[in-house]
Design brief:
- The structure is a homopentamer.
- Chain A folds into 2 domains: about 260 residues, 2-Layer Sandwich (Beta Polymerase, domain 2), CATH 3.30.460; about 60 residues, Magnesium transport protein CorA, transmembrane region (Methane Monooxygenase Hydroxylase, Chain G, domain 1, Up-down Bundle), CATH 1.20.58.
- In chain A, helix 1 runs antiparallel to helix 2.
- Chain A is α+β, with helices and mostly antiparallel strands.
- In chain A, strands 1, 2, 3, 4, 5, 6, 7 and 8 form an 8-stranded mixed sheet that branches.
Chain lengths: ~325, ~325, ~325, ~325, ~325
């Protein structure tokens, strides 16, 4: 699990206004440009592509009346997913992931959602996530949902969780490809891959478990900011998170099982190698001994001058080898 | 665990009407033919052999007054088993399985049950399941139960769970056959089989645990659609699910134990192979050395010309071998 | 864990009537003979040695006013231990075991207890169990307890649980005997025994855990059929079950520890074997090479004709061997 | 874990009376001598060094008005720690341990405490325990606590739990001494010791977990026999028990970790042994083959009569050995 | 985990007084000098660098009106983290750690915080901790928080927990450096390091789990000493502790995974070593046997005098070696 630590690009601020016919998207440069937002019957959504500078953030927070702890939470880089209800805002901290199938690296980024009255403010550092949301909105335009702020939050959460499911599917392909050759032809790369995937699973769990708590709390939250109808949709997200966790746990156990099988397979191979060595050694070591006896230079060795000495030697050798082979067959080594 | 992904056959719609004497089954072609259903004192049951096309589904849903989330649930292919109460309908999503003993593959399919007022609508993609239900109904006809919609749902759930028990029994046969030769004659196929069965157990657990939650919730649900008497029968299903889970957990542990024993057995065998090799090597390597000494061509080697040289050589060789054999007996290697 | 599947013997029906002085036991042939039972101030106990035929059972159930689910439960062969309160009867399904120390097989049988008003009806297929109960009753006769139906049920449960404790004690003896020679002289039989005992523990757990739930529920049950005083005694049974579970878990962990130690011990032995092989090989292989050099037939080999060639050869050989021995001593292989 | 099974010595009955200045201790012979006890403002304490004979016990129980279940509990040798409130008495069953560092045996004994109104009756078979309590009382004498019966019970429980902590400290010394040489110089004794300590931990857990429940219940018990102030002290005992459990669990995991490391260490050693063997074999086996070639007696072998044959032989031999050594260095075996 | 057991230095008593502009720090020699403290609107903080002597402590406790259990808790060296509310004080026992990356030793010290009315009394044996707090205070001075006693306690807890996070980061660096060479080049030092880190994780868990309970209780505590606003900050500390625990658990699993991979890697290496040995042995042992045959001195050996004997010998040798090499290639050993 790697934190994405690319050098901070200039912050991109996007403002999306909803009305009865759809939504308007525009990008602004300065934080102050956001202050005009938030009017009318329909909600607005402000997204920042990364954390603001401390001073900007403080001003921004002052204008939108943030509790100091909200500011702390936006600044704190190590916060784990959580939900906190400050009457005027609901703060949602979440962890969005993406998987790079080539390096087997899962990249996790903290995202922040602030659900206010007809206002959603988000800090989504993962561009894919924002792009996916925009596409979702565009598709939605044609259908005539009356957009609500809490429904928008549901959509963001759903997109984040869908990302987990996509990641798991990619991981599944990796697992599947590993499993194929596991017992018949295990290589050192297999071991490395299982090891990597296992470690990734452990990291993943650190992100998803608290997210489950967050969405669970959100469905139970008594707040005028969250509509009862939206909660039914949130239950769906909760269900998907549970699916993610179940799948993840199943993968973890599968990977453990694969490691065990890999080890068994290696043990099996070692056994096979040793059998070959032992069969060769136990057949040839004794007959080599016999041969070396008759290579000795003792003056008196009656066998050497015996007429059929050499032929008897071969008979003895073949008898010895045959006995050993029968013994190995009995032991089922052959 | 494989999702059955055969190319979609044309949807088969079956309508079953109950009356005081039994039931009438008929098959219809078009979704619209279902709209006349649902009259009188006794319940009706509509079963679809697979998901409908989106448009058909929407029309169907409109006619029968489905909540949008019900439509979403029918469409969503990855939903895990769950229960949701929409006043006019109770939605049950479940996972039905079947086991192919030859490939050791468990095939899981999502089924959907909608329990309405005197109406049950089901999407059961697994044909066996539907056939089993029909047989159950035919047997029932002779006895004079007054059919109720919730009792029908109980029967479907019972059939699904029975299928799990049958699957477990088939798996048990596999486990039993593996265990027989485990410690005396473990083969590579044994390892593969244990590995496969373990992975299947992990998949199975993903289906059955949420099903337990579903049936548990159903027995506690306060809804006019579920009769108090039926709940007593549902407790029976719940009990069977718990039995499935207990059995499954026991199998999993047994398989883990078998893998451990397999590994121990392999270690044992390796040990035995190594002992054979060591006994042969440690006996023959020294005496071969002695023989090779007297194969040397030094001019001055008094032993070679000694009268009893060759006989003494044999005495020494036998003494050396004897000593080694005694040593091995003391070490209990023989 | 084997289900006892001997061919069904003719059912044995025993009726025990209690009065103020003790109890009368008599055996009847036909189910109808039970119908006269159940009169007066003291309870009666009817025991069946096995399940009845379906028709007989139905008649019997009709006479004694059984709920259909009670009949289902008696027929269902795979029911797990459970408690269900049908106002006129309390149904207790339990699992009674016995251990065969020679085959290391635990035999489990389903037993059924129906606690009614001044009436106990039981299906106890395990004869030992019934015999043990009769003995308990005979001993009780002298003391002047006023027998109650619920106290009788307590006695049966206590007898069943005592049986578990006896079984565990027998298993303990097995474990203890295995442990003795575990680290010093492990054999293949040891592995088989540990494996068998582990698998038995897993089966055992499947029986005892639900039994705990049953007795626990019974102590909390609000029913006129269970007296408050009896519940104090039932707490004792509950305590014994908890002891069984604790002991069983401890045994399981001990067996796991023993398997680990067995494996370590095997590894140790392998190591020892390999050391012997390596010591012999690394000493004799080089000196055999030296000997084979001077067995070569090159025309020009000055060492062969040197005066002290042979003596120098021996000096070299001894130096080489000595160096190796010192090396092994330094490595602590000797 | 061994039950101490020394032949029953004659029971020793000690009566301790408290007054405002301290306490008086006296030993009596007969059970009847206890009956005069229990008067005045301060509590009395009767301790039995072992279980009474059944008849004596019954008489004793009758005099002090024991519930039949209390008598059963005193007689039952296998009872696990528990708490039961019989209005006039609180029954505490506990398990006291002591550790013999030489045999690595933990000896556990059941103790019983009956807390009545101004009366404490105990059966403490472990003499050390009683001795420790007496010392504690003697020290207390100088300070002017007004002794209460429940405070005395607290003191006994505290002494019992302290004993666990002392035992754990002794076990820690064992663990520590094992860990020292674990990775550098593991011996077979190491394995035996780890195995023994692990099994002891499993037994220990069986004693301490229920004790935690007992003390926890005692702190929550609503009874006139237990003062609110004493409960604050009991919380301290509870805290110490939790410390015992935490420490024990940590030790168990440490021992598991040590066993794993031991196994890894053995594997490492095996690897090292095999490398030595392989290096020697792969260097000497080929060159011995070369030497044996020139020991052949073929008539036509031009090399034998070549002028520099023998020297070229040595060059070849050294080149072969050198190549192998380079190969091993590349493989990092040297 | 080592308890720091340096010989007790003279106790250092530091008194910090807050006022509206900041704080004043002074050091006093005698315990009595603390008695003048605690006046005015703002809180005071007294810190002791180590436990006091018993008599001093008792006097001190008397002056500040401590409950006897508070005194016991300060004296008790083995107390685990806990929270107790004595109306006039809240007692917090915690465990502060520091990590020495060179010895891989985590050093844990018990700290005690007493939160009174406008008064905080602490026993912080870890100097770093106190120094960190002072720095925090100095930074705070410039900002104009109105200091409250409970906020100060929050700051201490936050500092302690931050220390855990720093320690985990240091441990992470260790883990990361180990993981790098784990599969490609495992050494014995790797094993030692993994073993040490695993044992440290076990110790760490013993400290952090109860701390979580302490802070959790503090956020739920109904006490006039803890302000509602401060609880929001304490939730932040709680969140960080949960992060510590999650991270720790993830590390533990990672280390377990690494140990498993290390073992697999060793097995792999052993396999490779054995293959080399087997390839060499099985090629050279048979051909050496052939060579030794023609070193025999039988009078009648037709091959020796055959014209192309020697050349045929070489052809046979090469054929044999070639066959073996093909066999190994087929087995994928080469």
């Amino acid at each position: 699990m790697e934190k994405s630590t690319s050098p901070a690009p200039p912050v991109k601020i996007t403002i999306i206004n909803f009305d009865s016919t759809g939504f308007h998207e525009r990008e602004v440069r300065r934080v102050e440009d956001c202050y005009q937002v938030q009017k009318g019957e329909f909600p607005a959504w402000i997204n920042f592509s990364r954390r603001l500078e401390n001073q900007e953030l403080e001003k921004f927070g002052e204008h939108f009346d943030f509790h100091p702890i909200i500011l702390d939470s936006i600044e704190d880089p190590i916060l784990r997913p959580r939900l906190q209800d400050f009457d005027n805002y609901i703060l949602i901290v979440l962890s969005a992931i993406s998987f790079n199938p080539e390096t087997h690296q899962i990249c996790a980024d903290k995202g922040i959602i602030l659900l206010g009255k007809k206002l959603v403010i988000t800090f989504l550092p993962k561009e894919e996530l924002f792009t996916a949301m925009m596409e979702w909105l565009r598709e939605l335009k044609t259908t005539s949902h009356k957009m609500r702020a809490d429904y928008l939050v549901y959509a963001i959460l759903d997109t984040v969780v869908d990302n987990y499911l996509v990641t798991l599917e990619q991981i599944w392909e990796q697992i599947d490809s590993v499993e194929e050759g596991l017992l018949t032809n295990p290589t050192r790369g297999t071991l490395q891959l299982i090891h990597d995937l296992k470690q990734e699973m452990i990291s993943l769990r650190k992100s998803i478990w608290p997210l489950r708590g967050v969405v669970g709390s959100l469905t139970r939250l008594e707040s005028p900011l969250v509509n009862q109808k939206t909660k039914l949709y949130l239950l769906d997200v909760f269900d998907h998170i549970t699916l993610v966790i179940d799948t993840m746990e199943a993968y973890r156990e599968m990977l453990s099982g694969m490691l065990e099988s890999y080890l068994s397979s290696i043990s099996n191979k070692l056994n096979e190698v040793m059998k070959v060595l032992t069969i060769f050694s136990t057949i040839f070591i004794p007959i080599t001994f016999v041969a070396s006896i008759y290579g000795m230079n003792f003056q008196y060795m009656p066998e050497l001058t015996a007429k059929y000495g050499y032929i008897i030697f071969w008979v003895v050798i073949l008898l010895m080898s045959g006995t050993m082979l029968l013994y190995f067959r009995k032991k089922k080594w052959l």
